[in-house]
Amino acid sequence: MEPGGVGPRETRLTRDAYRIPADQKTDASINEVIRLLYSNLRAAPTEPFIREPNGSHIELPPNPRYKKKLGSEILILDLETRPLKSTEDFRKGEYNWRNINHVSGGIFNHYTYALIHGYDYKFIHASEFEDRHATWIKPSALANHIRDYKFIVFLDADAAFRFLHVPVEWMLNYWDIKSHHSFVMAKDPWDPKEPQYNSDRFNRTYTNTGFMVVQNNENTMPILKAWHECPEDVRYANCSQWKQPKFHEQSAFGEYIRYDYDKYIKELDCGEANGFPGVEISNCQGKFVRHYWFEKHNVKTDFRENIMNALTLPIQKIFSENTGGVIVQQEENVIHS
């Protein structure tokens, strides 16, 4: 499926990056508000299981590798050539949650997730290429920041963390990510009725670049450099064919890059970190990360449900424990004189 997180620019912008370190306080301390809301909800990296909304459990395999929180060693990265429409509205005094689009909804999901777990966050406005699709900005942006972090977690704007309370470390344990894995990506759905749609020239299913975990190890920069330079047709003949046709940088990675670096790339089943509820092909249901190639408005719905769960839990606690005597027992349904 075509990544949806990077699109044509609506206005001319110079390159800029907005970074909010994990320990920096902002106006009205939204950092503290978010962390307080999730203080009793956050899962530990070694939590035995995660509870699904339907009551079932997702169990963590034994012997987890990541036992401590990595905090600012992890960067949650957003990468856009588009300006945020919600920012423009806010500056005009017209911000309204109901009116923001899925792009802002996705960005808010990613930023909130970083606040909850104490990760670094960056929103990078990148300039567009003159000769290739805007999604080709991914390899260079990753390369320019991976040196400063142990992991970068990148998401397209139409992708979202399903469980805001579940940390990256827990997912790394669940997926058994080892030190030699430079890239973690989920496969795209594969439909036997259209076998070539999401497959490379060897009939191998593409991995989707809308969600990537990039680990800083000795193989990461060579992979990113090869990927970035792929359309120049120096190392990989005919890679320039993916400058514009879909799936752009994703096709180039699937057709060429992964075959040279296969053992350093962890490919997840589609349902682990791609797709969304209702996708039957490859059971692509978005267990941990949802990628709404279609019905993109649901990015906002998922974010809203996560926030409302955290916000209403302390309210429910008040009614459950009758804090402040808000519940009064009326023994007799009569009017007292």
TrEMBL record:
GO terms for biological process: protein N-linked glycosylation. Pfam families: Glyco_transf_34. Keywords: Glycosyltransferase, Transferase. GO terms for molecular function: glycosyltransferase activity. One of its GO terms (cellular component) is Golgi membrane. The keyword Transferase applies. It comes from the Eukaryota. Belongs to the glycosyltransferase 34 family. This is Nucleotide-diphospho-sugar transferase domain-containing protein. It comes from Neocucurbitaria cava.
